[in-house]
Structure formats: C-alpha cells, structure tokens
Amino acid sequence: VTLNGINLFYKRKLLGRGELSFSYNYLDAYDNILKTQLDGSNYHNLNIKLSYFISDEIKIQMSHKRSSSKKYSTCIQNCSSEDESDNIYKLSSFMLTDFSLRYNFSEFISTTIGVNNFFDYRDKNATSEQFLTIINPGRTLFVSFDYNISRPYEE
Fold it and tell me: Is-contact 61 43, C-beta < 8 A?
C-alpha cells in the first residue's frame, strides 16, 4: 500500500464565546497489489464545526462533514461472480450536518440533545444496511447524559 496525502487543521476562537474548527484531509491510498485505490478509502474529507456558549451552562454546536465517493468490496473470499465489478459497492459523495445543545448541570455532569444527519441523507444506491450503517439509517435524534470524573468540562 502506498499512502500520499495532506491534513490541514485550523481552530479559532470567535468573538464572544464562539469557536470555529476546520479540517481537510486528502488521501491517495493505492493498493499496489490490486493496482487500484485502497478499498474503503476516499480522496477528500472536509469537517467544519461551529460551537457557541450561550451562557456558562449552555453550548450549541453545528458540525458539517463532506466526504468524496469511495468503494468497498462486498466479497471477502471465494466470490461466485465472474465479473469483479459485481462485488463492488460504490458510495457516492455525501454531506452530513449535525446539531446539538449541551447543558452543564455542574463542572462534571452534563446532558446533550441533538440531531445527527439533520438533512436526512440516505445513500440512494444502498440495497441494505449491511454497509455504512453510520449514514444509512438517515436522521437520528439523541439524548446523552455524561459524568466526567477526571476533570471539568471545557469552558
């Protein structure tokens, strides 16, 4: 396998109580044996996160992810199809946006409510949720309760 790429990361405090972070990854992962792009890898990933403390206890956050297309082999061993392309699953490029709101009850206890995949992206080519279960289910709502024993939450 040959890996060539670049990772860029930027984080900045915004006016008031906000924060913006940005990361971009380019990866050219080449399988030297099969002479193709490495199974499951994609070339581009972009992540943007915007956070803002409304008060000392309340934080809102929006994150956005953009990922370029990738492919997966659906066959591990002794595949029945003569045409190798029958055993390849292709995921087209996609974007996901998440929102959350966290309330800190104390320095060590908080709860978060949110929605992942706000725009309800679903892979149009998927015939089952066998692959990529992180994004196939579509929009999800969540609630979490957290207790941090090691140190207080961020300020």
Answer: no
For residue 11, the Cα-to-chain-centroid distance in whole angstroms is 18
Residues for the chain: how many in total? 155
Considering just the CA atoms, what is the radius of gyration of the chain in Å?
20
The Cα 121–Cα 87 span in angstroms is 24
Per-residue pLDDT tens over the stretch 2-61? 999 999 999 999 988 999 999 999 999 998 887 888 888 889 999 999 999 999 999 999
Instruction: Quickly list DSSP for 93-145.
Output: PEEEEEEEEEEESSSSEEEEEEEESTT----TT-SSSSS-TTTTT--EEEEEE
